[in-house]
Amino acid sequence: MNAKTILFFILLIPCFVRAQMVDNFSDGDFTGNPAWIGNTDHFIVNANKQLQLNHSGAATSILATQIMLADSMEWSFWVKLNFSPSDNNNVRIYLLADREDLTAPLNGYFIKLGENLSNDPIELFKQTGTTVLSLCRGTPALVANAFAVRIRVIHDKSGDWKIWADAAGGTNYHLEASANDATHTTGDWMGVLCTYTSSNAKNFFFDDFYAGEVVVDQEPPGVESLTWVHPAQLDVLFSEPVDKTTSENPVNYEVSQSIGNPSAASRDMQNAALVHLQFAASFASELTYQVKISGVRDLAGNLMQAITLPFSFHEVKQFDVLIHEIMADPDPAVGLPNQEYLELYNRSDFDLDLSGWKLTLGSTIKTFPQTTLPAKGFLILGAAAAQAEFAPYGAFVGFSSFSLVNTGTTLVLKESSGKIIHSVTYSDSWYENSFKKDGGWSLEMVDVLNPCSEASNWRPSKDLKGGTPGAVNSQTNQNPDLQNPVIHFVGVNSPTELLVVFSEKMDSASICNKNNYYIDQQVGTPAGVSAVAPDYRKVCIMLPVAIEEGKTYQLSVTGEVKDCVGNLVSASVSKRFGVPNAAEKNDLIINEILFAPKNGCQDFVEIYNRSGKILDLKEFSFSNFNSSTLEPEHPVNISDDSFLCFPNEYFAFTTDTAALNLFYPAQTPRNLVQVAKLPTMSNESGTIAIANKSGVLIDRFAYTGKMHYPLLTAVSGVSLERMNPQLPADDKNNWHSAAESVGFATPGYRNSQFLVAETEEKKDVILLSPDVFSPDNDGYNDVLAISYEFDEPDYSITITVYDASGRLVRNLCKNELCGTAAGTVYWDGLDNNHHKALIGRYIIQAECFNLKGNVKKYRKTTVLGGKI
């Protein structure tokens, strides 16, 4: 209980002194000193030393204790109801009654908390026998929901009643209601009457009862705190409500550094202890000022002592507070509570008020209560129910619900005005450790001076407990971002709007400056630029004129565009773009797939634009396909944003580009694209397809592990590459294992097994390429291409391989319908028993015929080479 009770008006000198009734239940007993009588078996003193209803079922319960009246009386008490009150669930606090049985007819006065509907105020009633009359009502809906309120009532001998309350449960009282009535002047009982249903039989709490003479306030006011609100406003919170006239006199406040007196001072309408000071000049951030306050009186007329206090303010900047640790999957627990949590870190040199800040968890928004995060301090965030479990680890803020998905969610922290302070899109791939990925270990930020890097600046905790909530991270180290950002790609949202995507999080101010960009072909400087929150990796650029179909344009960076830590985009960077074209079948093809990745890596699908068109990948989806109906199944958009693919460009798509790059260092990192999801690809066999938005198949591929080079000892981590992009994907001979020399995969660039049949000036029906091949899977001439071209269609062909002695080595195809006038058959250097053929010269014999009776025979020689 607060030791100081505030007097709100000048009191008459009482004619005599009577005993006071005081009970804060600190002795753990309510049956003595003073004694409460009534339904004593319905109440307890709980562990918090509060009087608590502790009954069951629906009922009415009372307790009463004796008081003695004085000419001027004061009553005060604290009440908490853990529910929204109603006609069936409310409480009466009898201030005065002429009998102890509060359920019987009596004469007296009571405060009622709770009524029907939702306008519940604090209300004073007079009771005469069984007749009840309302004398005055306070603020509507003040106690309409669950509450903890402190109430103070003053009654003088002239019959004036004044009711004061602090809805926060403290002693910062506000006048709620007043009335005049002197009907009942006798009575020596005070008490509580609880009416409730069974669900609320334990949800009434009381504390800090006082009944006696008015306590005279003789202590002058002091200053509790100074708060910077905005650059020209300072709030002064006094230790008690202050007089309106003296507190609103600007002369009573003076600030150093030539700021002077405020232009206006106003006492808060709701909180009489709070005064708002408005200045003509603005304060400078992080400069120390002195404010002298004098001449202010409290409501009892006590004059404060003059005081000079220092203050400064810090305007919250981006990255002042960081999302510093993430425990998204606490199960199985290692050594910490089996509860999800986030940790915030204040990297600034100032204590920061987080009241009203917002935390976005995916699509859920949480609002911070009144909270201060000290400079260089930590704050744990989680479910309110977990507060006791995290108490040993440090400061904690609990929310009514708190849920983190294990991977792929964006977390955004905003200050109260909506400015983004920090954001993180985390992934369980950041663990780089399957054991810790399974649960019980947090992800920790490595370097707080590198707040924008994500995968490269987060590591799984190495603390033996599984995490470090409320403490310095176990993975703390220097990890600066030294990489210059680049434009990842340019998309076309419309002929007058571009989408520019950068390689990393950017500085929002620099990317929004339209003078930092230029477009050729007489387009010029953009008409406007807007950044895409929360990570500012994308900007939308509005063009002054529409771009034309059939032209290729260049977007250039001409000014200082930088990432969030200040690294600049090279001024020479430019990217091409143009109006995209509609795609036809096989314009965009599946060029390489990894369907059986090594542990720690992920599948990927590589596409190749073999057309002469600009294609927009947002118009396509990856899918499986039904081999019977040849219809796409389970489609996944390749891109939700405009993403241009120019002729002869490659892009490899995976759910984790960082992991893919670890296993297969990219020759062109821009061509590795991370997506949230890919169609399911079995390690044994499966299907993958590209379809347009209408569901029309553009390309499809049915794969099996048996298509790999047979002499490989293991195919885990080995991709299948399409050798000739001009030949169909369903030609199983057109696919080969990626070469060992390139690490068994070439995501985002030309395949190691790329092979296009050579042409000769003198046209020949059968051509072999290369002259010498070496089937050792080193990526150089691993396969012999046997190409044919006839002057008319419908030929069937049989191709056989013999050694130099004329012995049969391999039957490559037999009576295979060519289908068109041209085609290619491949020899991988294996014999009919799938053993590698010996080094030497070989004869390729081709026999062809058609239904017109035309028969042709050809013999060619090749050399199978190898290392000796």
Task: Tell me what you see in this structure.
With about 850 residues, the chain is mainly β. Helices cover about 5% and strands about 40% of the residues. The protein has five helices and 61 strands. The chain is elongated, with a radius of gyration of 40 Å. The model is unreliable at about 1-20 (pLDDT under 50).
Gist of the model:
The strands form 14 sheets. Strands 1, 3, 4, 6, 11, 12, 13 and 15 form an eight-stranded antiparallel beta sheet that branches. Strands 2-5-14-7-8-9-10 form a seven-stranded antiparallel beta sheet, with no helix packed on it. The protein has about 850 residues and is mainly beta.
Low-pLDDT residue intervals, each spanning 5 or more residues: 1-18
- Please provide the count of β strands: 61
Radius of gyration: 40 Å
Instruction: Report the structural category.
Output: mainly beta
First-to-last CA distance:
95 Å
Main sheet characteristics? 8 strands, antiparallel
Instruction: Estimate the helix proportion, in percent.
Output: under 10%
Helical run tally:
5
Question: Layout of helices and strands, plus pairs?
Answer:
Blueprint lengths: L20 E3 L13 E2 L4 E3 L5 E3 L5 E8 L6 E9 L8 E8 L8 E8 L8 E8 L1 E7 L9 E9 L4 E7 L7 E7 L8 E8 L7 E10 L9 E8 L2 E6 L5 H4 L5 E3 L8 E4 L6 E5 L10 E5 L13 E5 L9 E7 L13 E6 L5 E2 L4 E4 L2 E4 L4 E2 L4 E6 L3 H4 L5 E4 L9 E6 L5 E7 L7 H4 L5 E3 L12 E3 L26 E8 L2 E6 L5 H4 L5 E3 L8 E5 L5 E5 L10 E5 L16 E4 L10 E7 L9 E6 L5 E2 L3 E6 L6 E6 L6 E2 L4 E5 L2 H7 L8 E3 L10 E8 L4 E8 L15 E3 L12 E3 L28 E4 L2 E2 L10 E6 L6 E8 L4 E10 L4 E6 L12 E10 L5 E10 L4
Parallel strand pairs: 29-30, 48-49, 55-61
Antiparallel strand pairs: 1-15, 2-5, 3-4, 4-15, 5-14, 6-11, 6-15, 7-8, 7-14, 8-9, 9-10, 11-12, 12-13, 16-17, 17-20, 18-21, 19-20, 21-22, 23-24, 23-33, 24-29, 25-28, 26-27, 26-31, 31-32, 33-34, 35-36, 36-39, 37-40, 38-39, 40-41, 42-43, 42-52, 43-48, 44-47, 45-46, 45-50, 50-51, 52-53, 54-56, ...
